[in-house]
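Progress note, sequence design subtask.
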C-alpha cells in the first residue's frame, strides 16, 4: 500500500505561508500588491553577524557540531538569560535547534503521549495545534477575545485542566495578538500550573519587540518553582532579523532537554553550523541594532494604528509587542456583505490588492492580521486601500 500515514491526514498547511505565496504570485504577474502577511522583520541581518558567519566559514568551521548545539552558543544563551532576566541555566538545560518552530516540534514529541492534552489560548500561532496533533496530542483551546485584551485568565486555564493535561502554552508578546501578559497575570497563571502540576511552555520569541517603555517578563523568573515548571522557547529570528538562519532554543528541565537532544541526534544531527556561529555573534556582539529595529517598529505602530482604527467597522486594540495588528472586523464584514473572514481577506487581496492573513488560521473568526514589518509608506498606502474598499462596499 502506498497511502499516506494517518497522522498527516488532518494536517493543514500554514495559512500564513499560503496567503503570502498567493500574494507573491500576483505580484510576480505584475499586480501592485502590498503584502502585510509577513511574519518576519524586513531588515537585513546586522552586518557584524554576517561577518562572523563568513569568518567562521573561512576558518573551516563547517562541520557537524554536537546535536544540542555548540557549547559556545549555549554559553551565549546562558549569558543572555542572566543579563536579561537574571535567570541561571546550565548547559545541560539548553538545547539549540533549527528555529523556535522545530524546537517546539521536538518538545511536543518528547512530552506528549497519544491523547495527552495541551491547553492553547486562542488566537494562537498557527503551528501550535498542528504540532501537538503530530505528536499524538490533543489541542484544547481556551478563548481570549478583544474584550479580554486577547489574553486568557488563570481561571480559564484551571477550568480547562483535566487528568490528561500536560502543558499550557503562553506566548507573550503574542502572535497574532501583540499582547503582553503583565507580571501579575503571569503570577496567577504560574500558581495554577504549579497547583495542577503541568508544564508551562513559554514562547518568548518576540521578547525584544516590546513598546511603550514596557519590559519583558518571563514567567520563569517569577520564582524557583515557576522556573522549574517552565520550558522557555526563544530564538534569534525576530530579535536579530535572522529568520532564514533557523536558530532557536529551549531552556528548562534537564530531562526534557536531554530527550530532545537525543531525538535531534537522530533527526537533524545539529542546527546548521554557520548559523550557530552567526547566533553567537548575535548574542555576544553589539545589541544596538536590536534596539534600532525595535524602535523603528514602534514608530510604524504609532503611525499606522490610529489610521487603521479610523476604518469603519474595524475595532483595533493597540498591541504592546511583536509586529502585528489584529483588528476585529466583524462589523466591517457585516456591513460589506461578507459572512466569513477568509472571503473578506481574499477580497482585500483581489480588489484592494493588500495581502492580510485571515484570523481563521489563528482560531479567530472575526479578525484579520496585518504585519507592520514593511515601510511606513507602504503601510499607509495599504491602510488607505483597505479604507477605500470598506467605504465603497459599505
Ligand atoms: N513562535 C511564534 C509565536 C512565532 O510567531 C514564530 C514565527 O513566526 C515562531 C515561534 C518560530 O520562530 P522561528 O523562526 O525561530 O522558528
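Output:
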Amino acid at each position: 500500500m502506498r497511502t499516506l500515514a494517518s497522522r498527516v491526514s488532518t494536517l493543514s498547511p500554514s495559512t500564513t505561508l499560503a496567503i503570502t505565496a498567493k500574494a507573491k504570485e500576483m505580484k510576480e504577474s505584475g499586480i501592485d500588491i502590498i503584502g502585510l502577511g509577513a511574519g518576519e522583520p524586513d531588515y537585513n541581518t546586522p552586518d557584524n553577524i554576517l561577518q562572523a558567519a563568513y569568518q567562521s566559514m573561512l576558518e573551516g568551521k563547517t562541520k557537524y557540531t554536537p546535536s544540542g548545539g555548540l557549547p559556545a552558543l549555549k554559553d551565549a544563551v546562558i549569558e543572555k538569560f542572566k543579563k536579561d532576566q537574571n535567570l541561571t541555566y546550565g548547559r545541560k538545560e539548553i538545547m539549540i535547534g533549527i528555529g523556535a518552530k522545530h524546537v517546539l516540534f521536538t518538545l511536543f514529541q518528547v512530552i506528549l503521549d497519544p491523547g495527552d492534552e495541551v491547553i492553547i489560548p486562542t488566537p494562537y500561532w498557527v503551528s501550535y495545534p498542528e504540532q501537538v496533533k503530530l505528536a499524538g496530542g490533543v489541542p484544547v483551546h481556551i478563548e481570549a477575545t478583544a474584550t479580554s485584551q486577547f489574553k486568557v485568565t488563570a481561571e480559564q486555564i484551571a477550568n480547562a485542566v483535566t487528568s490528561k493535561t500536560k502543558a499550557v502554552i503562553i506566548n507573550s508578546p503574542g502572535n497574532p495578538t501583540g499582547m503582553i501578559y503583565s507580571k501579575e497575570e503571569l503570577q496567577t497563571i504560574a500558581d495554577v500550573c504549579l497547583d495542577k502540576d503541568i508544564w508551562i511552555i513559554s514562547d518568548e520569541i518576540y521578547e525584544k519587540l516590546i513598546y511603550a517603555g514596557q519590559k519583558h517578563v518571563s514567567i520563569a523568573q517569577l520564582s524557583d518553582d515557576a522556573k522549574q515548571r517552565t520550558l522557555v522557547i526563544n530564538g534569534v529570528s525576530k530579535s536579530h532579523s535572522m529568520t532564514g538562519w533557523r536558530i532557536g532554543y529551549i531552556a528548562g528541565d534537564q530531562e526534557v532537554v536531554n530527550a530532545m537532544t537525543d531525538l535531534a541526534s537522530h533527526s537533524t544531527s545539529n542546527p546548521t553550523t554557520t548559523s550557530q556561529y552567526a547566533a553567537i555573534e548575535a548574542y555576544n556582539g553589539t545589541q544596538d541594532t536590536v534596539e534600532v529595529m525595535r524602535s523603528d517598529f514602534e514608530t510604524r505602530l504609532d503611525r499606522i494604528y490610529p489610521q487603521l482604527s479610523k476604518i469603519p467597522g474595524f475595532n483595533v486594540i493597540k498591541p504592546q509587542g511583536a509586529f502585528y495588528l489584529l483588528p476585529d472586523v466583524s462589523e466591517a464584514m457585516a456591513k460589506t456583505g461578507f459572512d466569513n473572514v477568509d472571503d473578506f481577506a481574499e477580497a482585500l487581496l483581489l480588489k484592494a490588492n493588500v495581502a492580510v492573513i485571515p484570523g481563521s488560521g489563528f482560531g479567530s473568526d472575526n479578525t484579520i492580521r496585518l504585519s507592520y514589518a514593511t515601510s511606513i509608506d507602504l503601510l499607509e498606502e495599504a491602510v488607505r486601500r483597505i479604507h477605500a474598499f470598506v467605504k465603497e462596499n459599505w
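Residues 39, 99-101, 125, 171, 175, 203, 205, 235, 237, 243, 248 surround pyridoxal-5'-phosphate (CB under 6 Å). Work on this subtask will continue into the next period as scheduled.
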